[in-house]
Structure to design on (134 residues):
């Protein structure tokens, strides 16, 4: 048995549906805005535009069914490319390992094996800190 005052405060179903749809469209519009911002930032020195564009794409992905379908298709076609985005979209994302892994991949594409420095630098830092804390 329900009480009459409890019925007065329940949101109506069409209204809550409209709010969900409005929220979804607002997130998509925000994602498009962030992507455009990233494109404007991209010519500046440094990698500033790429992470901003990725955040915009994630906003769109969270709010668009069409984008989710495309993301799943991309996941089957190119799992190594999509995996970092999946890791960043978890509830508790691990930013540092994802960016480190992407830096290693970028270094691998750009530089030949003898000129790669990131792995050696990480191993040198690890040795240095082990000596310091012994």
């Amino acid at each position: 048995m329900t009480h009459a005052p409890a019925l007065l405060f329940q949101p109506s179903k069409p209204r809550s549906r409209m709010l969900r749809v409005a929220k979804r469209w607002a997130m998509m519009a925000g994602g498009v805005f962030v992507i455009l911002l990233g494109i404007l930032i991209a010519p500046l020195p440094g990698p500033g535009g790429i992470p901003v564009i990725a955040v915009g794409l994630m906003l769109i992905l969270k709010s668009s069914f069409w984008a989710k379908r495309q993301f799943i298709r991309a996941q089957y076609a190119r799992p190594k490319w999509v995996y970092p985005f999946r890791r960043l979209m978890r509830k508790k994302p691990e930013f540092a390992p994802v960016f480190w892994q992407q830096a290693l991949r970028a270094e691998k594409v750009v530089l030949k094996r003898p000129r790669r420095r990131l792995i050696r630098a990480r191993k040198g830092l690890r040795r240095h800190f082990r000596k310091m804390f012994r």
